[in-house]
Specification:
The chain is of the alpha+beta class. Helix content is 36%, strand content 19%. β13 and β14 form a beta hairpin.
């Protein structure tokens, strides 16, 4: 807590209408404390309850009212006294402010389903785009008013309260489920563990965790002074902190939070503005810049005013969000699969600065793609020091005409990713040229349109690192502990040199020679690797990282070919007809498969890998009951969309992502996508719910159901 308006602890605090009655630590925070050892347990328990109440009150005055009434010194004194009492008398601390000091580290976060989907917000960069949004809204639901909010550049969080008590806090994750970070969230001073007043029995709210700019600067200074690397920007610092496995580390970092939406409530509000007003009464911090607008021009002016004030704010924003206020109108407008149709983000223009290009280098990706990168003379772009920027591809390099020594204008797309917008002063002899050989493995480089590739395959050390990372990622075989840092250690130590097969040759003794590895961590990684020796065929194909072949397409290939040998043989024989007969595999993807298996380097790595790994035979198509039928799924279903698609495809049907004249059925769950239902109406495609789908499957002799 810091405020020049706060009084010193020794001064009497003025009478406060909303202050807890007869609590000496609210009105006279410098009250003398008797020695802890002079108290009995009953007196200590009573004093601890008064301290907890006072601390929560002062948090409310600071984070919600923005009007603190005691100094930092007085607040810290109350907090330390509470810690001393709880420690000396072993008092129950569930829900206590003392939880903010953290707790024991966790081995891993539990994945928790959200109460309601945490959707993205569709955005526009132009006032015209906002007016088009307004026209559509008014066309569908009539006149509306808007709530106008800053678009925070932090980390989204779902926070659930039951009977006014903090139950859990979860990261956004994939929008449907996220990591349970409740222990970390409890360390955030601005996030209340108890709601004030008369809260709903059940309340799930959405907030944005952030690191205030001033606090970020101070914390970065401390890191540098003690020899640690500084964080790149407040958002990266926040994202890295909220998922720390040690809550005591989180407690040391200056996080804060704003709340901005109701996900579900046992006592729903009729308008969003009323909900936000109640948030403040309940003790949930709401940004002071939130406003209302009678029409779309108010919203545009609000955005322009906030853009002008942006640099004076103590939190990062990259635009504003315009939301329909009336809940009934929101429900009528609905949502697509990824975004509500009642909200629109109006983004700020990217920040830009000018700086010379010190050098141009090439980054080699997992698939061998070469990405040119400009190394820049460091320049501050919107509060972030930028020293490198992507040039995307070699067509971009030629179009810009950028070379070493040129002065370029650098922007941060969405205030995050730096890129070169243009050359403003030419000092080079010409644009950087595509190298003939890979800068890492010296293999020949081939160009396909704007994209260039190293032909070294998995034998290229750069591709090796990234292929091993991908192999162990969630999109691959999901090997816990095989992240970027571990892979770098293994490659640097010479334990992985030829490909992912080397992972299965590593011993506990090998790992324990590496820095930071003990018997427990070594045994855990080896057990994780052993568990992947007989993977599902779909997971194995996905883990290879073949370009354009993600988990969904890998599943279709597995069901069609049933064995890895069958898939490999079709690709090696360049049997495009067999490959393109798989739904979702066009000629371009089939060519990628052929090229991958034709590489001698890839073949050597695969042969080595198959000496340790035996992919299980896929079940393939269980029957042809649904042959000739095409299904599209939309909305929230009782199981994942991919699970429903697997049932359809395993019985000979097709599952596609968009509605067309070839679609036979649109399966509709809760909150369906408006575009798909509209397309179905236009194409005359019948829509069915889950109950009707089950009946339809039964009529075709299919008794399988997702999750059963």
């Amino acid at each position: 807590m810091t405020s020049s308006d706060a009084t010193d602890g020794g001064e009497e605090v003025a009478a406060l209408a909303d202050a807890p009655a007869d609590n000496p630590y609210v009105r006279a925070p410098d009250t003398e404390f008797e020695p802890v050892e002079a108290l009995d347990e009953a007196a200590a328990r009573e004093q601890a309850e008064l301290l907890r109440e006072a601390i929560e009150f002062h948090d409310y005055r600071y984070y919600v009212d923005h009007d603190p009434v005691i100094s930092d010194r007085a607040y810290d004194r109350l907090f330390q006294r509470l810690l001393d009492l709880e420690d000396a008398f072993d008092l129950e601390t569930a829900g206590s402010p003392s939880n903010r000091v953290g707790g024991e580290p966790v081995d891993a976060f539990e994945t928790v389903a959200h109460v309601a989907p945490l959707l993205s917000i569709d955005h526009t960069d132009t006032a015209e785009g906002v007016r088009e949004f307004d026209e559509r809204v008014r066309r569908e639901v009539g006149d509306v008013e808007y709530v106008l909010e800053p678009k925070f550049d932090g980390v989204s969080l779902e926070v659930v309260y039951e009977d006014g008590e903090l139950e859990r806090a979860t990261t956004r994750g994939d929008g449907e489920a996220g990591d349970d970070v409740t222990r970390n969230a409890r360390t955030i001073n601005a996030l209340p563990q108890h709601l004030r007043g008369d809260p709903p029995e059940f309340l799930a709210v959405r907030g944005e965790v952030y690191m205030p700019r001033e606090a970020f600067t101070e914390y970065n200074t401390e890191r540098v002074e003690r020899g640690d690397d500084p964080f790149a920007n407040p958002r990266n610092a926040t994202a890295g902190t909220i998922r720390q496995q040690d809550p005591t580390i989180v407690a040391e970092r200056p996080l804060s939070v704003f709340f901005f939406d109701v996900l579900e409530s046992s006592d729903p509000w009729t308008t969003h503005s009323a909900a936000l007003s109640s948030f403040r009464d309940l003790g949930l911090p709401v940004c002071e810049r939130v406003a209302t607008g009678a029409d779309v021009e108010d919203a545009i002016r609000y955005r322009d005013d906030l853009l002008e004030a942006r640099d004076d704010l103590d939190y990062e924003i990259d635009g504003v969000v315009i939301k329909v206020d009336e809940r009934a109108a929101r429900e009528e407008l609905g949502a697509t699969a990824r975004a509500p149709r009642w909200a629109k983000a109006y983004k700020f223009p990217a920040r830009d600065e000018e700086t010379p290009v010190a050098n141009v280098t090439v980054q080699v990706g997992r698939t061998g793609r070469l990405t040119p990168v400009a190394l820049l003379e460091p320049v501050d772009v919107g509060g972030v020091t930028v020293s490198r920027a992507s040039l995307h591809n070699f067509d971009e390099v030629e179009a810009l005409g950028v070379g070493v020594g040129d002065v370029v204008r650098v922007q941060r797309a969405g205030d995050v990713i730096p890129y070169v917008e243009s050359v403003v002063e030419r000092n080079s002899d010409g644009p950087y040229e595509l190298p003939e050989a890979c800068p890492v493995c010296d293999s020949p480089v081939e160009r396909e349109g704007p994209i260039a590739y190293c032909t070294g395959g998995l034998g290229c050390p750069a591709q090796l690192r990234r292929s091993v990372e991908y192999y162990g990622s969630e999109k691959g075989l999901d090997v816990e502990g095989l992240g970027e840092e571990t892979v770098s250690q293994l490659v640097d130590a010479g334990l992985v040199t030829d490909g992912v097969a080397d992972l299965y040759e590593i011993t506990e003794a090998d790992l324990r020679e590496l820095e930071g590895w003990g018997a427990t961590s070594a045994a855990k990684l080896l057990a994780e690797l052993d568990a992947t020796r007989e993977p599902e065929l779909a997971d194995f194909v996905a883990a290879l990282g073949i370009q354009e072949v993600g988990p969904e397409l890998a599943g279709r290939l597995a069901r069609h070919f049933e064995t890895f040998d069958a898939l490999r043989t079709a690709a090696e024989n360049e049997d495009l007809a067999a490959l393109t007969s798989v739904d979702g595999v066009g000629e371009a993807v089939a060519t990628q498969l052929v090229d991958f298996f034709a590489s001698d380097a890839n073949a050597a790595v695969l042969d080595g890998l198959l000496a340790h790994v035996d992919p299980r035979e896929a079940e393939g198509v269980a029957g042809e009951e649904l042959e000739g039928l095409t299904f599209v799924f939309t909305g929230s279903l009782s199981a994942s969309r991919s699970a429903f698609e697997d049932v359809v495809e395993s019985h000979g049907g097709s599952a596609t992502g968009s509605v067309s004249g070839n679609t036979d059925y649109l399966v509709v769950g809760d909150s369906p996508g408006a575009s798909k239902t509209s397309d179905a109406d236009a194409e005359g495609v019948p829509t069915v719910d889950e109950g009707e789908l089950r009946e339809l499957l039964a009529e075709h002799g299919v008794d399988e159901w997702p999750g059963e």
